[in-house]
Amino acid sequence: MINNYTVKNCLKRTLMGLAFSSIAFSGYAQQKNFVVINPSITEKELVDVAANIVPSPQQLRWQRLELTGFIHFGINTFTGREWGEGKDDPKLFNPTALDARQWVKACKDAGIKQVIITAKHHDGFCLWPTKTTAYSVKNSPWKDGKGDVVKEVADACKELGVGFGVYVSPWDRNHPTYGSDAYNDVMVAQLTELLTQYGQVDEVWFDGANGEGPNGKKQVYDFERWYAHIRKLQPQAVIAVSGPDVRWVGTETGHGREEEWSVVPVGKKNKMDNGSQTKVDTPPAGDMRGSVLGSRSQLKDGDALKWYPAETDVSIRPGWFYHESQDKKVKTPEYLKEIYFHSVGRNGVLLLNIPPDKRGLFSDFDVAALKEWRAKLDEIFKDNLLKNAKAIGKVKKIKPLLDGNDATHHLFSMKENDNAVEMDLKGEKTFNVLLLQENIRIGQRVEKFVFEYWENNQWKIATEGTTIGFKRLLEFPTITTSKVRLRIESARLQPALAEMGLYFDKTDKK
Ligand code: FUL
To answer: Which domain holds residue 493?
Structure first.
């Protein structure tokens, strides 16, 4: 149950150290990831409220995964299409060597912590033997109609310790009920099957596409009913991106925003939105593709503030589904590295799609790219050059920043001369990558930071930025120095810096 508080109550309760908005379901403590805003709130109060909004336990777990994998597989794999019309013969679905373990293992080896399978794409073809339609693997020649792709993926994930998620397209171009109330029941029945037959499900992924079905009608999606159903059956799952827990970053390029706020205004006053939002479990509305979504000046633009973090989805190939003609267009390890810096390194979670081919295997091209990409990242991040650094400024307690634990932090006071951490590197070090992390259990608070190095008896700027959030990675021209300093120039309340790292990417020519 959601309680909506006025901001006055909310601030009072914050001071009392109590949760100011709550949602209760089995196994989880109170959350405070959503606050309804009283229109009379002052700008200062609003900033303080934003600074105290934190992820739900599900959102925190999901954020910490950093890398997740998408697997687009289905009837389109065999027709060469991206969007099937729901009319292709199920007999076309016939992978010759399907091995879900190979998919999940390749993902795991690349550092991917959770995998989402397209249980149903827009064509309506179901990868599990559902009772809700004949349009499924059950009527394909694969395993004589006895196969279940969803089960094979779920089992491989469980065996390899990888999270498991399902993509269930609300748009269904095959189901005869699409365009009527009965279809919302079909979705509930499909969710019931998917969420009760395969063990733990960690992410349910809804796309926003809402086209016409076989009768030429569009469907009014009953998202709120579906969310409630998911909460009941799999309370630990996050619901993305036409969902209330995880927001689409707004592009499918793999490059997120440099300024990425996980706390954003939602609802009526949001200039891009016509609806109102006073409950947390509401589908996203309005155009959330703006260049910045949660800056100080934007906080007042909604009915409510919500922890609503960004997921950056992109395919390793030009298409989401496998096409042989794209074998030579698999993204290079170098480009995947850039995507990593611009997704995970910009306070997002990367959702990288790798589509199995007609055999039902990841192709050698994709597997090779994944391997080299992982090797590159391991090489860059193997050695934090700050690990032996000594604090030389006013801030003495730098241990939490270097302990590799995102739950410990240094709380900056933001008083003059107190908002910087200065370190002696104990000898000259060469680097070109900065890593910063906030402890988002406290909130996302940093608004502007500057990272400097000591050269010719003065501080010079190596790099600077606005938001940090769960993780920020910045690349800059190679520097050799023995002293560095991080200054937080602007923040909401006291920022909690969790981690700091300096690395050298030898392959970076900049
Ligand atoms: C989109 C879909 O239309 C694409 O086919 C793909 O599934 C992508 C992840 O989401 O909106």
So the answer is: 390-503
Are the CB atoms for 36 and 5 separated by under 8 Å?
yes
> CA end-to-end span of the chain, whole Å?
52
What count of other Cβ atoms lies within 10 Å of the Cβ of residue 338?
16
Last residue of one domain, picked from the residues 380, 403, 435: 380
User: Contact, 50 vs 56, CB < 8 A?
Assistant: no
For the segment 438-457, what is each residue's pLDDT rounded down to a tens digit? Answer: 999 999 999 999 999 999 99
Shortest-distance atom of ligand 1 to CA 72? 7
Beta pairing, strands 446-455 & 472-491:
antiparallel
Closest ligand 1 atom to 208 CA = 11
Task: Quote the CA–CA distance of 241 and 224 in Å, as a whole number.
Answer: 14
Give the mutation target among 122, 320, 322, 350 for probing the ligand 1 site: most ligand atoms within 8 A of CB: 320
Predicted local distance difference test score (pLDDT) of residue 269: 57
Mark whether 356 and 426 lie in a shared domain.
no
- In this prediction, the residues of the chain whose per-residue pLDDT falls under 50 are 1-31, 272
Place of tokens 């403590």: 29
Q: For residues 165 and 188, give the distance between their C-alpha atoms in angstroms, rounded to a whole number.
A: 17
Q: Which of 236, 171, 232, 227 is nearest to 203 (CA)?
A: 236
Residues 89 and 141 in one domain: yes
Query: For residue 341, which of 40, 25, 66 has the smallest C-alpha distance?
Result: 66
Task: Calculate how far, in angstroms, residue 202's C-alpha sits from the geometric centre of ligand 1.
Answer: 20
Residue 318, in any domain of the structure:
yes
Q: CA of 361: how far to CAs of 138, 162, 354, 364, in Å?
A: 20, 18, 10, 9
313 lines ligand 1 (CB under 6 A): yes
Q: How far apart are the C-alpha atoms of 395 and 411, rounded to whole Å?
A: 10
DSSP letter, residue 328: G
How far from the centroid of its chain's Cα atoms is residue 357's Cα? 26
Four-point Cα dihedral 177, 182, 188, 191, nearest 10: -10
pLDDT value at position 121?
Answer: 98
For residue 271, is it within any domain? no
Looking up tokens 């890593």 gives 435
pTM: 0.93
The answer to the question of residue 298 being in a domain is: no
